Amino acid sequence: MRYNQLGNTGLFVSELCLGTMTFGAAGQNAQWGLIASLDQKGVNEIVGRSIAAGVNFFDTADVYSFGQSERLLGQSLKDLGVKRSDVIIATKVHGAMSGGPNDRGSSRGHIMDSVDGSLERLQLDHIDLYQLHGTDTVTPIDETLRALDDLVASGKVRYVGVSNWQAWRIAKALGIADRKGYARFETIQSYYSIAGRDLEREIVPLINEEKLGLMVWSPMAGGLLSGKYGPGAPGNGEGRRAAFNFPPVNEDRAWAAVAVMRDIAKKHDVSVATVALGYVLGKPFVMSVIIGASRMDQLEQNLAATTVKLDADDLAKLDEVSVLPAEYPGWMLERQSAGRRPAPFVPKA
Q1: 349 in any annotated domain
Q2: pLDDT tens per residue across span 134-182
Q3: Is the pLDDT of residue 281 over 70?
């Protein structure tokens, strides 16, 4: 297990982060019942094995099974006797927690109410990384940032991050934070996979420029890249993706990538899912990849991605088959910047 800096901070997190969307009772509600299936015993087994493998980073959200995921994770850390300083706990705020008009979004009121609820459920006195789970198009960014800064000043939160925001909005928030002396976003949690490399257009350049840490969610595109789906799939395609077709992907490109991954998986004697994870882990702009599991064999398959060594030929094939189609203004930027790149230095004879 390798450890990377949390954004531009001195905190280090494991390259794999255990996601907790599977924590909760199956059938509890229409949305989360399709994903959550683990009770306390199952959670303790998954968390315990992850820690034994070197995982020190755990990501949850208040909205996952409407608080049950946070509650199960917090109790698991107690049951396992985990030292608080040995783990980095991340949770999120934004999603609707009830039918009330103010029990959602990124307003100061909702954030201040929600952080206390998360702390109580997690049985913690502070949250290491508190993230905005989505874009609130109503609340002014300044209001949201001031609330987050107050939480950092109070000690309830150590660092703040954002998820599922556009590059321009993140850049604007970073500018406001810098100008007003607020705690800045240190991380971005975004969807990225070999079947969905859109992040490379705008978000990745921002990450590199501002030294932000990228947390990748759904690196296997909701199970689509597990090898159970598409042409040549050995099974019948049952599973979470069959019941919950998300995130959306271009399936033609996805199946082409899966075909190449099958060959590479055979070469390294690993699963297709392990190759999919290994590809994302190999990207230099990725801080941590969020994995999820409802069974121990799934977890072991995910953990194996830290040991697979994809060679230059593997990566070249995967990059080629999954390349993004040219899109404006990207193709124009490339054309116009060609003459501005310095020519390679050639020493005189």
Answers
A1: no
A2: 999 999 999 999 999 999 999 999 999 999 999 999 999 999 999 999 9
A3: yes
C-alpha span between 134 and 116 (Å, rounded): 19
For residue 236, give every residue at least 6 positions away whose Cβ sits within 8 Å of its Cβ, in sequence order, or none.
none
Torsions phi, psi of 217, nearest 5? -105, 150
Q: Residue 91: what pLDDT?
A: 98
Question: What is the DSSP-derived secondary structure letter of residue 89?
Answer: E
How many angstroms separate the CA atoms of 221 and 232, rounded?
A: 18
Q: How far apart are CA 122 and CA 310, in angstroms?
A: 37
Task: Please state the φ and ψ torsions of residue 227, each to the nearest 5 degrees.
Answer: 100, -5
Q: CATH number of the domain at 94, please.
A: 3.20.20.100
Domain span at residue 328 reads 3-338
Question: Do 276 and 261 form a contact (C-beta atoms < 8 A)?
Answer: yes
Task: Please say if 159 is a catalytic residue.
Answer: no
Looking at the structure of the chain, the number of domains it has is 1
Count Cα neighbours of 179 within 13 Å in the Cβ-side half-sphere. 8
Other residues' Cβ atoms within 10 Å of the Cβ of residue 309: 8
Q: Kindly give the pairing relationship between strand 88-93 and strand 57-59.
A: parallel
- Domain assignment present for residue 346? The answer is no
% residues pLDDT > 90 (the chain) = 84
Give Cα separations from 284 to 23, 31, 102, 279 (angstroms).
30, 34, 39, 11
Catalytic residue among 3, 64, 130, 191, which? 64
